[in-house]
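quick one before i forget lol
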Amino acid sequence: MIDPIDGTTNFVHGLLTWGPAVAVVRDGDPVAGAVVAPAREERYLVGPERATGNGAPLRVSDRSDPDSFVVAPILRYTGSVADRDRFAALTTRLVTELGDVRRLGSAQVTLALVAAGVLDATIGPFPPNAWDTVAGALMVERAGGTVTDLAGEPWTPDSDAIVATNGEAHDAVLDRLDGFGE
C-alpha cells in the first residue's frame, strides 16, 4: 500500500508536514511500514517487533490525564461545506473534551508523532483512507499505544474511524468522544 504524498495540500503550499508512506499488508494484517517526512528530516519505520524514528526506538508518551493531552485530528478535507462543518464540530469537541489541539494535515505523520510521544492522541472520526493510516497505526501499536475505532473495537484498515492514543487514557478519550460521528 503506497501513498506517494500524504499531506498533498501541505506539500503544494510549502508546509513542512507531508511525506510518502508505504505499508506492507499480509493476509489483511499490516506487518511493516515506513513514513518519511523529508522537509522535517524524519524517517519512521515499523516492523513486526518495533518502531523507530531516525533510527531510535519510538515510544508513546506517558501522560495519563486527557486534559493535558496534545491531540491532532485526522480529517480528509476537500474544502466542501460538509467537510468544513465536520472539521468545526470535531475541533469544538476536542477543544472542550481534551487538552490542546493541533491539525497537522498529514495523517501518517500525525500517527508517527503519536508513536514518537510528541502527540498524545489523534482522532479521525470519519472513514479514513487506508493508505493514509495503515503504516502510522502500526507504528502507534508497536510503540506501546492503542489504536481502535470510536466504539473501542480494534482498528483495521476497513474501520469507519480511527482513535490512536498513548494507551494511558484510551478509554477516557473514547468516553469523551461518545456519540461523535454518529
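fyi The longest strand covers residues 29-37.
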